[in-house]
């Protein structure tokens, strides 16, 4: 039993997984009859990862957890809590976590707390907070926690389809971490909204009000940011760090349904900074923007003038602090719960480790319905430890570049197969196994009682896939 308050609790290891196949968004624009540039420039998406009927949320989680434990040589007995955040429900009352317990069976470790958490894309953050809270609580028994997020984001044919994606992220949580969750700096906003939800339990597709969903996202961002600023300023009064607003962050990650919304979100934060700056100081800090002195948050979600002005105002901040976080979102699409954590991976592989040492990363997590939090992570000052931590992600880019491109026609056919057989039983999937990455769990079959069996593609001998 641990007796001391654990120090520097946070992420000790992180593993990301994305599908081995993708569709090109330029080709998808043509196939869908959308105007050229709508998906690529308008939404900011280049490629969209997708899964055939061979993969489901259980298989994604089995793969990402196995890979994390193997890559970091973590024994199954060293895990004391395992949380799953997902909105891709398969067995309704039976959790994905319980499926993952198969991985722990040989070790005899059944003493693992935690279960699934669901609220659209926010479930992963809730899982991560639960993991952090456990380590920082009197219930902690000294072992690691694992927070796992995974989803398959698919939409019916139409405007929302190009904002799909799929993937998984697993995070090993413990004390003395290279990425530390800053205590007292969490700001949350939760509210009832029907912006995106899944009322048809027989379908993988959500009911979505696209425009409302964007408004909900932006208003949750406003509220979380203001609350975060208040909490930060209260702490800062003690530490005298002297930075407020966007200057306080060295990098900023967002839940990313599509990349363009994130670019607009940076502008939105800058607009908040503007409104929170006294009129006297605005002329100096926001020269040329005085015409927005009387603008309000509520009146400007879709105000083109405000949007454009603050996109321009924040362009340097976006370039320096957020652009690099969008690599996986741009190349894979919306992963739902893992989305914001794929942003963290993109940052870690996109910026030299030395440039992040000792820095503060702001995180905005959003899930429709709605639940949102903004919090911050501080990067360890230990440069050698941080470099070692980041080096574990060397596999990401080669894996991303080894994916197979699939024509939109074939993608559409594979979506129809998923759609038709979503709850079929008995069922044997028809998707190719050969196309999956090494070490991938896949659905072998579903029996007449809907019980799912999984197998794994061969792993590479050193256990690093
Ligand atoms: P839409 O309404 O058909 O698209 O679907 P649009 O007409 O608004 O066009 C999109 C952008 O492309 C616009 O840019 C157009 O001008 C531009 P904007 O004006 O907004 O800056 N455009 C072009 N640009 C260049 N060349 C062209 C061209 N044509 C148009 N030729 C929508 C867009 C996002 C609504 C749809 O895809 C959708 O419903 N997606 C799903 C919902 C979603 O992603 N919402 C985001 C916020 S909610 C959230 O993040 C939660 C979520 O992740 C779920 C969860 O929590 O689990 C979704």
UniProtKB/TrEMBL annotation:
CoA binds at residues 213, 260, 264. Keywords: Lipid biosynthesis, Lipid metabolism, Steroid biosynthesis, Steroid metabolism, Sterol biosynthesis, Sterol metabolism, Transferase. Pathway: Metabolic intermediate biosynthesis; (R)-mevalonate biosynthesis; (R)-mevalonate from acetyl-CoA: step 2/3. CDD domains: init_cond_enzymes. It holds the Pfam family HMG_CoA_synt_N. It is an enzyme of class 2 (transferase). Residues 5-178 form the Hydroxymethylglutaryl-coenzyme A synthase N-terminal domain. Its EC number is 2.3.3.10. It comes from the Eukaryota. Residues 179-456 form the Hydroxymethylglutaryl-coenzyme A synthase C-terminal domain. One of its GO terms (biological process) is sterol biosynthetic process. The active site is at residues 87, 121, 255. It catalyses: acetoacetyl-CoA + acetyl-CoA + H2O = (3S)-3-hydroxy-3-methylglutaryl-CoA + CoA + H(+). InterPro entries: HMG_CoA_synt_AS, HMG_CoA_synt_C_dom, HMG_CoA_synth_N, HMG_CoA_synthase_euk, Thiolase-like. Belongs to the thiolase-like superfamily. HMG-CoA synthase family. NCBIfam families: HMG-CoA-S_euk. This enzyme condenses acetyl-CoA with acetoacetyl-CoA to form HMG-CoA, which is the substrate for HMG-CoA reductase. Catalyzes the condensation of acetyl-CoA with acetoacetyl-CoA to form HMG-CoA. This is Hydroxymethylglutaryl-CoA synthase.
């Amino acid at each position: 039993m641990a007796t001391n308050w654990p120090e520097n609790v946070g992420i000790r290891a992180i593993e990301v997984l994305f599908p081995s196949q993708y569709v090109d968004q330029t080709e998808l624009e043509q196939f869908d009859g959308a105007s050229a540039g709508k998906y690529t420039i308008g939404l900011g998406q280049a490629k969209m990862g997708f899964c055939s009927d061979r993969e489901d949320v259980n298989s994604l989680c089995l793969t990402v957890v196995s890979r994390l434990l193997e890559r970091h040589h973590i024994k199954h007995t060293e895990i004391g809590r395992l949380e799953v955040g997902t909105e891709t429900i398969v067995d309704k009352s039976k959790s994905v976590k319980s499926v993952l317990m198969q991985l722990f069976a040989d070790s005899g470790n059944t003493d693992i707390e935690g279960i699934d958490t669901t609220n659209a894309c926010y479930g992963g953050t809730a899982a991560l907070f639960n993991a952090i809270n456990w380590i920082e609580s009197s219930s902690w028994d000294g072992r690691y926690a694992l927070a796992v997020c995974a989803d398959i984001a698919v939409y019916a044919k139409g405007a929302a389809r190009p904002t799909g994606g799929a993937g998984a992220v697993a995070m090993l949580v413990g004390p003395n971490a290279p990425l530390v969750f800053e205590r007292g700096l969490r700001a949350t906003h939760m509210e009832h909204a029907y912006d995106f939800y899944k009322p048809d339990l027989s379908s993988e597709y959500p009911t979505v009000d696209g425009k409302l969903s964007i408004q909900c996202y932006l208003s949750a961002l406003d509220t979380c940011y203001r609350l975060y600023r208040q909490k930060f300023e209260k702490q800062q009064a003690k530490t005298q760090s002297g930075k407020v607003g966007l200057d306080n962050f060295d990098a900023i990650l967002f839940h990313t349904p599509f990349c363009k919304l994130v670019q607009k979100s940076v502008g939105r934060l800058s607009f908040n900074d503007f409104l929170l700056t006294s009129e006297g100081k605005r002329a100096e800090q926001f020269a040329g923007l005085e015409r927005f002195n009387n603008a309000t948050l509520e009146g400007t979600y879709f105000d083109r003038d405000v949007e454009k002005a603050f996109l321009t105002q924040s362009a340097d901040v976006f370039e320096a602090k957020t652009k690099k976080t969008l690599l996986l979102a741009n190349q894979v699409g919306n992963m739902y719960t893992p989305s914001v954590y794929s942003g963290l991976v993109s940052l870690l592989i996109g910026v030299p480790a030395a440039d992040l040492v000792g820095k503060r990363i702001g995180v905005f997590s959003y899930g429709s319905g709605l639940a949102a939090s903004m919090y911050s992570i501080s990067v360890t000052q230990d440069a050698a430890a941080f470099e070692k931590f980041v080096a574990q992600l060397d596999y990401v880019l080669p894996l991303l570049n080894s994916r197979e491109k699939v024509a939109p026609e074939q993608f559409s056919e594979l979506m129809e197969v998923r759609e038709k057989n979503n709850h079929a039983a008995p069922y044997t999937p028809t998707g190719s196994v050969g196309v999956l990455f090494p070490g991938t769990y896949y659905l072998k079959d579903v029996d007449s009682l809907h019980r799912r069996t999984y197998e794994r593609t061969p792993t590479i001998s050193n256990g690093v896939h």
